[in-house]
Amino acid sequence: MKKLTGIFSALLVSYNEDGSINEKGLRQIIRYNIDKMKVDGLYVGGSTGENFMLSTKEKKEIFRIAKDEAKDQVGLIAQVGSVNLHEAIELGKYATELGYDCLSAVTPFYYKFSFAEIKHYYDKIIAETGNNMIVYSIPFLTGVNMGISQFGELYQNPKILGVKFTAGDFYLLERLKKSYPDRLIWAGFDEMMLPAVSLGVDGAIGSTFNVNGIRARQIFNLTKAGKLEEALEIQHVTNDLIEGILANGLYLTIKELLKLEGVDAGFCREPMTAKATEEQLSVAKKLKEKYLS
Ligand code: HMN
């Protein structure tokens, strides 16, 4: 198994204007992440891949292409979570057969599942696939908030390696690290990387690393080395960039930034706005000139 710590890009997917997968563009995004952003790995099938708007067949196709392009060059995590447990298991088996190093699954969403149901969901995916698992916790999108004791119950399953923690609750983050020191934590908000790393996270998984991966690594390494002032300088610049990206449309703008680097990052998938307006393009150009040249 490849190392799963460090800087992992939440992989963007290139779509054609009709919403179909642009395989050539997807391969270019993967190459850019590995060759230029020098990431330690890829988180495939996450929010950033616009995954929750795709069919099972399309999700599998993305897992296949990503593994075929990345081979064993970097760590690969497959996000297989779905409100349809049968789909999550099918995807988990598929990604495991392809050789993904680990699975991840978003907490089941939309319905108000009980904690017992959530635990059953993870235990069943793990039992059916035999692979390791990273819990994907993103309460602001799923509405699922788990506390320290609930994580402890999930961690009774030894195949759960830890959590991708996309939240700003640093008290919970600190408590998790202290209570379960053998479990890993990946920071999920790129704009809060410094405080998360200072509290001891083991890795970070982010959308903006597709274009800002070098700075992300600097923040990670400097913070780990205790050089907080230097790390903060880079976090400030990073957050100016992220603020601009968020205000202009998150995935759409990162795709435009990639296109300005010669990567065919394509369109977004409807119902997200598929194509950037002239105004959004011009903002992306300014962001590129100011922060990525
Ligand atoms: C994924 O599932 O694709 C990512 O792991 C999600 C990641 O945590 C990103 N969150 C979302 O896009 C909702 C962040 O990188 C986020 O985009 C960034 O911090 C800007 O807010």
Q: How would you explain this protein's 3D organization?
A:
With 293 residues, the protein is of the alpha/beta class. It has twelve helices and eight strands. Helix 9 packs antiparallel against helix 10 and helix 11 (250-260) crosses helix 12. Bound molecules: 2,4,6,7,8,9-hexahydroxy-5-methylcarboxamido nonanoic acid. Residues 10, 43, 46-48, 166, 188-191, 205-208, 242, 246, 250 line the site of 2,4,6,7,8,9-hexahydroxy-5-methylcarboxamido nonanoic acid.
Characteristic terms for this protein:
alpha/beta; binds 2,4,6,7,8,9-hexahydroxy-5-methylcarboxamido nonanoic acid; 293 residues; 13% strand; 8 strands
Q: Report the helical percentage.
A: 40-55%
**What ligands can be seen in this structure?**
2,4,6,7,8,9-hexahydroxy-5-methylcarboxamido nonanoic acid
The main pleated sheet reads as: 8 strands, parallel, barrel
Strands of the largest sheet, in order across it? 1-2-3-4-5-6-7-8
Would you summarize the structure shown here?
This protein has 293 residues and is of the alpha/beta class. It has helices at residues 23-36, 56-70, 85-98, 115-129, 139-142, 148-154, 170-179, 193-198, 209-224, 228-248, 250-260, 278-291, and strands spanning 6-10, 41-44, 75-79, 102-106, 133-137, 160-165, 184-187, 203-206.
Topology:
Layout: E1 6-10, H1 23-36, E2 41-44, H2 56-70, E3 75-79, H3 85-98, E4 102-106, H4 115-129, E5 133-137, H5 139-142, H6 148-154, E6 160-165, H7 170-179, E7 184-187, H8 193-198, E8 203-206, H9 209-224, H10 228-248, H11 250-260, H12 278-291
Parallel strand pairs: 1-2, 1-8, 2-3, 3-4, 4-5, 5-6, 6-7, 7-8
Helix pairs in contact: 1-2, 1-9, 2-3, 3-4, 9-10, 10-11, 10-12, 11-12
Bound molecules: 2,4,6,7,8,9-hexahydroxy-5-methylcarboxamido nonanoic acid.
GO molecular function: N-acetylneuraminate lyase activity
Family: Belongs to the DapA family. NanA subfamily.
Subcellular location: Cytoplasm
